[in-house]
């Protein structure tokens, strides 16, 4: 009996919310093919990144960080880095699953600078 791979879960959010469309001024596409998308993300102090999504799981190289607030698509606070104490040491590497609609606000005094490899065929 032949088995087929499980179908990828349906992404319920519109393509217009993709980071490269909805928040293009904060995401720079460094490389993309059918397997990966490699993004540079820079958020300067005081900047607000509008609501957007990240469809694929990713490996994130955190070059520098700052205090930030992540909100869901309705503006509810999901995470406030000021509530965890001190920021993680950088550089650092993190794994992130796909991110539904969210916004990010840099409320700190330094840049948030990330290099993100999104894995188009990965799973969360």
Structural topology:
Elements (H helix, E strand, L loop, with lengths): L18 H4 L4 E6 L3 E8 L4 E7 L3 E7 L3 E5 L4 E4 L11 E5 L2 E8 L5 E8 L5
Antiparallel strand pairs: 1-2, 2-9, 3-8, 4-7, 4-9, 5-6, 5-8
Structure description:
The chain is mainly beta and 124 residues long. 3% of the residues lie in helices and 47% in strands. The protein contains 1 helix and 9 strands. A 5-stranded antiparallel β-sheet has the order 1-2-9-4-7, with no helix packed on it. A 4-stranded antiparallel β-sheet has the order 3-8-5-6. A hairpin with a 3-residue loop joins strand 1 (27-32) and strand 2. The model has no long low-confidence stretch (mean pLDDT 93).
Rg, Å, rounded: 15 Å
| % residues in beta strands | over 45%
> Which of globular, elongated, flat, extended, rod-shaped describes the shape?
globular
Domain tally: 1
What's the architecture in CATH terms? Sandwich
Number of helices: 1
At CATH level 3, the topology is Jelly Rolls
Q: How many strand segments?
A: 9
What would you give as the CATH superfamily? Jelly Rolls
Structural class estimated from helices and strands: mainly beta
Q: Could you state the order of secondary-structure elements as H and E?
A: HEEEEEEEEE
- Report the major sheet: 5 strands, antiparallel
| Lateral strand order in the biggest sheet | 1-2-9-4-7
Straight-line N-to-C gap: 28 Å
| Low-confidence sequence ranges | none
Helix content: under 10%
């Amino acid at each position: 009996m032949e088995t087929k791979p499980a179908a990828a879960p349906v992404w319920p959010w519109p393509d217009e919310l993709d980071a490269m469309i909805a928040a293009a001024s904060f995401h720079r596409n460094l490389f993309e093919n059918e397997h990966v998308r490699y993004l540079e993300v820079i958020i300067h102090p005081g900047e607000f990144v509008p609501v957007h999504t990240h469809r694929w799981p990713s490996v994130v190289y955190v070059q520098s960080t700052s205090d930030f607030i992540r909100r869901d698509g309705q503006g509810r606070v999901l995470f406030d880095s000021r509530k965890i104490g001190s920021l993680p040491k950088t550089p650092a590497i993190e794994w992130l699953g796909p991110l539904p609609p969210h916004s990010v606000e840099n409320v700190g005094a330094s840049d948030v600078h990330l290099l993100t490899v999104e894995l188009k065929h990965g799973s969360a």
